[in-house]
Design goal:
The chain contains no helices and eleven strands. It is globular and about 40 Å long. It starts with a strand and ends with a strand. The chain is mainly beta.
Length: about 130
């Protein structure tokens, strides 16, 4: 059974850092494009970062997180990470990872940040940025 599990969320002060993990079971994560999304209360789920399959050398970021967040893979651990630095209160949200079999979505900027491109989702992890 294909499953994604996020972890690493929590409460952090503004300016702090967190590293989220997206671990896969039942499939090899490297075969999929992996995206990170977030959903704040009362808002739609938005794509914030993604990484290409097969080694993951292509990445994309939403403007709201560019320069602060970094996505990466560890194929040995079958895990994708999202390193989040310089966190702001507006980063508060539930964060989800998702997997897509459509490998070409990383070829055009912004395409892999579209929710509709992903068929597999984790349950989410809460990130709260507050003093």
């Amino acid at each position: 059974q294909l499953q994604l599990v996020e972890s690493g969320g929590g409460l952090v002060q503004p300016g702090g850092s967190l590293r989220l993990s997206c671990a896969a079971s039942g499939f090899t994560l490297d075969y999929y494009v992996i995206g990170w999304f977030r959903q704040a209360p009362g808002k739609e789920r938005e794509g914030i970062s993604c990484i290409s399959s097969s080694g993951g050398t292509t990445t994309d970021y939403a403007d709201s997180v560019k320069g602060r967040f970094t996505i990466s893979r560890d194929n040995a651990k079958n895990t994708v990470y999202l390193q989040m630095n310089s966190l702001k209160p507006e980063d508060t949200a539930v964060y989800y990872c998702a997997a897509s079999q459509i490998r070409s979505i990383t070829a055009l900027r912004g395409l892999c940040l579209m929710r509709s491109k992903y068929g597999y989702w984790g349950q989410g992890t809460q990130v709260t940025v507050s003093s």
